[in-house]
Hints:
Blueprint: H1 6-19, H2 24-31, H3 35-42, H4 50-59, H5 69-79
Helix pairs in contact: 2-3
Amino acid sequence: MFVPSPEAFADFARSERVRGGLTQQELASRIGMSRRWVQDFEAGKLVPSLEAAFRVSAAFGYEFHLEHAEASKLIDSLFGPS
């Protein structure tokens, strides 16, 4: 999954939280942050640190992957945009 911006990451996290039936407090407890932090993150009022982004991703069973932009362009040219 490609997440192009902090705002898109917040939208993804909110969608995953709702889909999983979690409250903001339950997510906050899972990631070791406050409910206010989750609220501000989902509202786009803050950009998470890299550590926080790892925690949020892991809470939903995702991993972070870095991919060189040129590799993405090559894959898109061969198989179409993902």
